[in-house]
Specification:
This protein is an all-alpha fold. It contains 18 helices and 2 strands.
Length: 325
């Protein structure tokens, strides 16, 4: 049996490649033509027989127990040639389901997003007040705005009173610094009719306007500031001289309380005295109540006797009050 098997192997080695070599050579040629064009096994392609090794007894040539280098490469090459399609270049380049999802995600992320619409309360507070006032004036409404607190609400203020006073400050400050003919009238109508603010909010807001004007020198920079501010006071008081002087005295009192007490007294009181002197002269038959003098009395009690005396002197000059001799 051994001799017959050895003869068959010898004839196969000397005459032609074995069946396994032929199969590997064909697969090698196919793989080479589809990729680089070079065969994986040169010995199989050339038909060179593999070298047989002698057996332990030295009797001729037997089928090699250890494959040669060319034979050891046959099986891996054959497996690669007949392997799964996922290893081919076509399958590696084709997008998988995961790749498609990533492509769609990248496409969505690359598209420009629509700009977010700004919220109403994201606008500056002054702009929202101006827009509401313009809207109300354009519609020429005589009734108040019921939901204006919701429209102008802001987290920048600790209370509703503080917000109301800031509205008064913004509206009156602009009305006293612009050249529009009816700016003061429109401002008063908006605060009194549209928003229906209380007197205390008006007093504090107007006092802040005067404080700001004194601190930044607005009365010198805007020559008609005093005239416009007095016009605002007159419109709010109406035809009542008693209300005019009462409002004026309270506003000056609040203004002096807000000013820096370390500043020179003349620097703070002189601009206020000019406002007080610019108030209209009461009618001959006008009567003033003690209510209009309550703020002046309060100034005297706060240690502002000189300023209180200047206010009384201004009323005497205008004939509003008479001093007993």
């Amino acid at each position: 049996r051994c001799n017959k098997w050895e003869a068959r192997v010898q004839r196969a080695d000397s005459q032609a490649p074995t069946t396994l070599q032929e199969l590997a050579a064909k697969q090698n040629e196919k793989a080479a033509s589809s990729s680089s064009g070079k065969p994986l096994l040169n010995s199989a392609k050339s038909g060179t027989p593999t070298t047989a090794t002698p057996n332990r007894k030295g009797n001729g040539s037997r089928f090699p127990s250890t494959p040669s280098a060319s034979q050891s490469d046959i099986a891996p090459a054959w497996r690669n040639a007949m392997g799964s399609r996922s290893d081919t270049p076509a399958s590696r380049n084709s997008p998988t389901t995961q790749d498609k999802g990533a492509f769609l995600t990248d496409r969505v992320n690359s598209e420009p997003a629509e700009p977010a619409k700004p919220k109403a309360d994201s606008k500056p507070f002054a702009d929202r007040v101006r827009e509401l006032m313009t809207l109300w004036l354009n519609e020429n409404r005589d009734e108040g705005i019921a939901d204006w607190q919701e429209t102008l609400k802001s987290g920048d203020f600790q209370s509703q009173e503080e917000l109301n006073q800031q509205i008064v400050f913004l509206v009156i400050h602009e009305a006293c610094t612009v050249t529009a003919k009816n700016a003061q009238q429109s401002a008063c109508f908006f605060l009194v009719r549209a928003l229906e603010l209380e007197d205390e909010d008006l007093y504090q807001g107007l006092a802040k306007v005067l404080v700001n004007a004194i601190q930044i020198g607005l009365m010198e920079d805007v020559p008609k500031f005093n005239e416009r501010f007095v016009r605002v006071l007159t419109m709010m008081a109406g035809r009542s001289d008693d209300e005019l002087y009462c409002h004026g005295a309270k506003i000056l009192y609040n203004t002096l309380a807000l000013l820096d007490p370390t500043e020179a007294e003349e620097d703070n009181t002189e601009p206020l005295i000019k406002i007080w002197k610019d108030l209209r002269v009461p009618a001959p038959d006008a009567t003033l109540t003690i209510h209009s003098l309550s703020a002046i009395i309060a100034l005297r009690e706060r240690g502002q006797e000189k300023f209180a005396a200047q206010l009384v002197q201004g009323m005497v000059v205008k004939g509003v009050v008479a001093l007993d001799r």
